[in-house]
Amino acid sequence: MQPNTSAAWQDRIPRFEKLLVISAVLRVVLILYSEWHDAHSIVKYTDIDYRVFSDAARFILYPKLQGNIAKGPLAPIFFTVGDPYTRETYRYTPLLAILLLPNEWLHPSFGKYLFAACDLINGALIYRILMFHILPYTKSLAPDVSAKNSRRFMRAHATLLAATHLLNPLVFTISTRGSSEAILCTFVLLTLFYALERRQNVAAVMLGLSAHWKIYPIIYGVSCVSVMTSQRVDGKGWGFAYLRLLAGRQPLCFALLSGGTFIILGAVCYAMWGYPFLYEAYLYHTDRRDHRHNFSPYFYLIYLTYSSSGGTSADLSIWRQLLRSPFTSLIPQLTLSLGTGLVLGRLSAGLPFVWFVQTFTFVLFNRVCTSQYFIWYTLFIPLLVPRINISWKKWVMCGAVWMGTQAMWLAEAYKLEFLGDDVFLGLWVRSLVYVAGHAWVLGVIMSGYTPFVSCNQHT
């Protein structure tokens, strides 16, 4: 009876193509609704960042608008181009503004449709990675099902897991409101896909592009190199042979290709847009001082050392300068995110799992953390579920703690942001609870994860 029951369960799962259609329709409806809502409500559905993107695209398209001609050293030599950084708070690569140029000449919601399309591409990549690199090596997938039906079960499982991303309210709400995180997720998943396919040169180029888009994916380079090296060394030690291979030909080529892609893209952008690009896209993020809208406990240190009188850091005491320094958060953050990539990659834990742990720790200990950052690591969860062996009760507890700590923080933040109450200390305590709760969730997932080893191991 078990095979028949399982087959009946499998037959109730729609095909992945149907899931894609449903996901696309959902996003189109939400984008159309956003246009209506924004036209009839004071509180907008569209994220303020989308207006920033659109304004930056307009500034590029019309260089003489407000005298915003690009300030790069080579810009006047080739052609006149506008400066997206004329738009205050635009702190992204100029490539994003270029992608959204059709917002001006085609339709104002073009960017939202582009982000929604990237959502669908991400779902397709998750499905493909599951089908070819995760589920075939998961023997516990359907133990009572014959080999003849195993592929049908894999398709059903892959569709269900891809649906957890495509139909995730956090995912489709963020993209249809106009956040560009979906594009970055596409680049990251393409990097992962090519790495699992052992097309290391393509993966290196995609990693360089991802790091250009936002700097944090550079942490994945450590785990990629560690995995490459571990495949050529027997055992689990950290001997001289392993350390020597870290600087071997294959890791070196990977580092040169990814680093070269990052440098070339940055050099081209600098040549056109100059120092404003360098500062807004990268340098600004190394010393952000967000003492509001920030889950991180570091917000309180920023608040306590924030100078409202226009003074410089030199005017502060050494103790306050230390608390204010970005290295206070950067050192433990990079130690954990890079260290886990090196160690777990050496242990052949699987790239999706390693990247999940690296990203989780990077976000958790980042100096600034907003809800959009959670997309960076929840992206990998569908790829981990087949290998996580924990009870459904623990899954529920993890979900409750993960969302509950955020809800508790948001309830206190509402008093600060909207009511103007002085609740900085209470909010800081809730930030500590948020960190402890999310760290516990990460620990449960790590303890329940089961690495797999096969003759074709490359994940």
Describe the fold and architecture.
It is a single chain. This protein has 22 helices and no strands. By secondary structure, the protein is mainly α. α7 runs parallel beside α10. The model is unreliable at about 455-459 (pLDDT under 50).
Brief sketch in words of this structure:
The chain has helices at residues 2-11, 16-40, 48-61, 75-78, 94-99, 102-105, 110-134, 150-166, 169-176, 181-196, 200-213, 220-230, 240-246, 249-286, 298-304, 318-324, 327-346, 351-364, 374-378, 381-384, 392-417, 424-448. It is mostly helical and 459 residues long.
Main features:
459 residues; mainly alpha; 22 helices; globular; disordered C terminus
Q: Helix amount, in percent?
A: 55-70%
- How much is the radius of gyration in Å? 23 Å
Strand percentage, roughly?
under 5%
Order of helices and strands: HHHHHHHHHHHHHHHHHHHHHH
Structural class: mainly alpha
Largest sheet: none
Can you count the beta strands? 0
Overall pLDDT metric: 86
Stretches where pLDDT falls below 50 for ≥5 residues?
A: 454-459
Give me the number of helical elements: 22
Separation of termini? 35 Å
Shape: globular
